[in-house]
Amino acid sequence: MDEGRNKSIVLFILMGGGFLIAILYAFVIAPNSNNSTLGRSDPFLEIPVQKWNLRYSESGVVPFCKDDSTSLQFEVVQDSAVYSSADGVVLGVEDNVVSIEVFSNVFVEEYPVSNTSLTKGEYVKKGDPIGNVDGSFLNLRINNTRSEVYECPYNFLNSFGKSIVDDTLDLMEYDGNGCECAILSY
Question: Which member of 26, 41, 72, 133 lies 3.0 to 4.6 Å from 153 by CB, making a disulfide possible if both were Cys?
Answer without folding.
Answer: 72
